From TrEMBL:
This is non-specific protein-tyrosine kinase. Residues 18-115 form the Polysaccharide chain length determinant N-terminal domain. The lineage of its organism: Bacteria, Pseudomonadati, Bacteroidota, Sphingobacteriia, Sphingobacteriales. InterPro entries: AAA_dom, Bact_polysacc_biosynth/exp, GNVR, LPS_length_determ_N, P-loop_NTPase, Wzc-like_C. Keywords: ATP-binding, Cell inner membrane, Cell membrane, Kinase, Membrane, Nucleotide-binding, Transferase, Transmembrane, Transmembrane helix, Tyrosine-protein kinase. It is found in: Cell inner membrane. It is a multi-pass membrane protein. The chain crosses the membrane at residues 32-53, 495-516. Gene3D superfamilies: P-loop containing nucleotide triphosphate hydrolases (3.40.50.300).
Length: 796
């Protein structure tokens, strides 16, 4: 094994780190393969169960088209004429988007839910899942709410004969009754009525009752309306529901209610027009009757039968202008009547289109005004008056109304100018007929008034008949192109997607578990943990000792852990200068990281190579080395430090493991260990030992707990800082970093201890790699040798 050297190539460093990350991920997967297998099996099992027993969703679709009159010849003619005047009043937007708002309105969906009693849902119970029914249950349910806002409740329903058993845990309800009986519950009264020729299910039913608003909200979420094409007025309706037949009934009922609402709007316009015409007919009829009565009285008083022959040519000329005068007066009368509707801003009544003026431009403008009023009436079904959509329509209505007022004023002025001209002409003609007898003039006046009222009366009668015919032949502007139809197979649950999700979640769960475990881990696990936290090189890695004996070395041992100590010995030879005695300090962050184990086995592996080695046990507070080697610790360094003698031979003890292996025990635990280490005796001891031994190994206290090791460091050539896998805290590596940065330790190197063979991140770093034969045969031999040595030591 080679010592890790500092790396300076950043690009190479990044590539190597990426490679190591990939290896780490792969090794983690192989290490915890059983977690991934269990998670995948469980998630796939859940996915298959969801596919088989999950609630299906069917897609129900239909199409409805909105008739657009903009393509009719009359509308095209109106559009052409509108270009000549008042074009800003006649540009009407497409109503397709308005119809989408009407179709998706809560009011329309509420009507459907109330008509089909959708807030009362009956399910057929199964062994695992329940299935929603539609007209398949053997009973009908009528509820009479006692409160406005109902909370959702579910009940178990069992039927035996004509007796119904109703049970609910939430309401603490357990009662039995017969069909037709009123059951008084907390929120409503319920009546079950029997359906003939329907057999009850043996497993019973699940009854769910919720508020109508909640059901409307749930249905609205799964309902969508869109244009099939931007150039058309055909709308595509789509509803997602768990019961295909019930979904078809919901969508078909919604389209029926929508058509009915559309038709009712048109009938409302026609009724308003008929009401206006009837009121005008009454007024005109009374005026005409009065004129005819006066005319009759005039004829009777003056015995006038025929005055046509007198001044026929002049009369014909007068009559022509009288006719023109009558036409102008009719137009002004109609304008005055229509102006009553538009001069009042709060008036929302529709202007009867059949009474519009003869000018086609104004006819189109009145039509647009009526259409905006109708559109607002539709929007108020779905929105409140303060809704921005309704306010926008109100603003548009106000703009059109103001434009109509201005336009009508201009048109009325032009009619009055023409009327004044005709009157002037009539005055001149009347001056010419002054020679005509008085009776003839009066006769002509009565005749003119009578003709005027007759024409107006006939006009109103004609429009009334036209409106009545239009009302009886009115059809909805919306036509159903495709009725509601459900897909044969449900679109949910989607088997490929669910299986893929199961695979993804099956891999995600153990991955997240391992990631969180890694994030929350505060101890050193892998070599990467060490390298990320410190730049101090790792000089050796020692595997976990699974044997009962802490001494793992022998001359002939070929076990993995003994080979690792040999590799450590080789690395130390590269780090230390040859030809002189070397002092090695072994310390760690805290107790339990294996300093004594490393010291004992490192000393042994050095001694069997022919190097005379001595270990000084300087962990004076908690000495363990002598006990692990089977030596008496009653006399040692402590005795030497407090004595007046400089003779070190009395404290040097040979071991049974090798003739080159010696130990200086710690001796009795002193009350002042730090003061003993600061004394001159330790420095004298090390100097004397350098004269005799090749290697001097000092087993010192942990630097993370006491400062004893720092007092010894000035006497050593190299410091081994022991890090134990799954034991040493990551934060404790900052101790050695600070000591090195402050110059308190000159030549520190890391030694990783107790590495598990299967732990990710260490496989391939001298442990578990390349020792297959040694692990199988050599380790067994080493184990037998260790047992023999242990027994021979006990005999001694």
């Amino acid at each position: 094994m080679q010592i890790d050297a500092p790396r300076h190539d950043e690009d190479h460093d990044l590539k190597e780190e990426d490679t190591l990350d990939i290896k780490n991920i792969i090794s983690k997967v192989f290490e915890y393969w059983y977690l991934f297998l269990i998670s995948l099996a469980f998630c796939l099992f859940c996915a298959v169960g969801y596919i088989k027993y999950g609630t299906p969703k069917y897609k129900i679709t239909s199409k409805i088209t909105i008739d657009d009159n903009s393509n009719s010849p009359s509308s095209k003619l109106s559009s052409v004429s509108s270009m000549m005047d008042l074009s800003d009043l006649l540009s009407l937007p497409s109503n397709a988007y308005n119809e989408i708002d009407n179709l998706t309105s809560r009011n329309l969906m509420r009507q459907v839910a109330k008509a089909l009693n959708l807030n009362v849902i009956v399910y057929k119970k199964g062994l695992i899942k329940r299935t929603e029914l539609f007209n398949e249950e053997p009973f009908t349910i009528n509820i009479s709410p006692k409160i406005d806002s109902l909370e959702e409740r579910s009940y178990d329903v069992d039927i035996k004969g004509d007796v119904i058993h109703l049970h609910s845990f939430k309401e603490d309800l357990d009662t039995s009754f017969k069909y037709g009986t009123v059951v008084h519950l907390q929120q409503y009264d319920v009546v079950f009525n029997v359906k003939p020729n329907k057999k009850p299910e043996p497993n019973g039913y699940k009854l769910v009752i919720k508020s109508l608003d909640k059901e409307v909200e749930d249905l609205s979420k799964d309902f969508d309306v869109s244009l099939t094409d931007k150039q058309s007025t055909t709308l595509a309706l789509q509803l997602a529901y768990s019961n295909s037949k019930k979904g078809e009934a919901i969508l078909q009922t919604l389209m029926t209610f929508y058509q009915r609402s559309n038709l009712e709007t048109k009938i409302q316009i026609a009724d308003s027009t008929l009401k206006f015409i009837d009121s005008r007919l009454g007024i005109v009829s009374r005026e005409l009757s009065g004129i005819e009565t006066e005319f009759q009285e005039f004829k009777q008083e003056n015995n006038v039968a025929d005055v046509v022959e007198q001044g026929k040519a002049l009369v014909d000329n007068v009559k022509e202008y009288y006719n023109k005068l009558n036409e102008q007066q009719v137009q002004i009368s109609v304008l005055d009547d229509i102006s009553k509707y538009i001069t009042n801003p709060t008036n929302r009544k529709i202007i009867p289109s059949s009474l519009s003026v003869q000018d086609p431009v104004f006819g189109l403008a009145i039509g647009k005004y009526n259409e905006l009023l109708s559109q607002r009436d539709k929007l108020t079904l779905a929105y409140k008056d303060d809704n921005p959509i309704v306010k926008n329509v109100d603003d548009e209505i106000e703009n059109v109304r103001q434009s109509l007022i201005k336009s009508f004023d201009v048109y009325r002025k032009s009619l009055k100018i023409s009327l004044d001209a005709i009157k002037d002409k009539n005055v001149s003609l009347n001056n010419e007929v002054k020679s005509v007898p008085r009776k003839q003039r009066v006769y002509l006046d009565y005749s003119r008034k009578q003709n005027l009222q007759e024409q107006l009366y006939l006009y109103l009668l004609q429009k009334k008949e036209e409106t009545a015919i239009s009302k009886t032949s009115t059809i909805s502007a919306a036509r159903i192109v495709d009725p509601a139809k459900s897909d044969y197979n449900p679109f949910k649950p989607n088997m490929p997607v669910i299986v893929l999700m199961g695979l993804f979640v099956g891999l995600l769960i153990p991955s997240l578990f391992l990631y969180i475990k890694e994030v929350l881990n505060i101890r050193v696990i892998t070599k990467q943990d060490v390298e990320k936290l410190t730049s101090i090189p790792i000089v050796g890695e020692i595997g976990s000792n699974t044997g009962a004996n802490s001494i793992v070395f022998t001359a002939n041992s070929r076990s993995i852990i003994s080979e690792q100590f040999r590799s450590l010995r080789t690395n130390l030879q590269f780090l230390l200068s040859g030809g002189k005695s070397q002092v090695i300090l072994i310390t760690s962050s805290m107790s339990g990281e294996g300093k004594s184990f490393i010291s004992a086995n490192l000393g042994g592996i050095l001694s069997i190579s022919g190097k005379k080695t001595v270990i000084i046990e300087l962990d004076l507070r908690k000495p363990k080395l002598s006990h692990s080697l089977g030596l008496d610790n009653s006399f040692g360094f402590t005795n030497f430090a407090v004595s007046q003698s400089d003779n070190i031979e009395d404290i040097i003890k040979p071991t049974v493991f090798d003739e080159n292996y010696f130990v200086i025990s710690s001796g009795p635990v002193p009350p002042n260990p730090s003061e003993l280490l600061l004394g001159k005796k330790l420095e004298l001891l090390v100097l004397e030992l350098r004269k005799t031994f090749d290697f001097i190994i000092i087993d010192s206290p942990p630097v993370g707990l006491v400062s004893d090791a720092l007092q010894i460091e000035k006497l050593v050539d190299l410091t081994l800082y022991v890090v134990r896998q799954e034991y040493t805290l990551k934060t404790q590596l900052n101790i050695i970093n600070d000591l090195k940065a402050n110059g308190k330790i000159r030549r520190p190197y890391l030694l990783v201890n107790d590495i598990k063979a299967k732990k990710a991140g260490y496989y391939g770093y001298g442990y578990g790699y390349g020792y297959g034969y040694g692990y199988g045969y050599g380790y067994g031999y080493a184990e037998r040798t260790e047992k023999k040595s242990r027994f021979s030591f006990l005999k001694r």
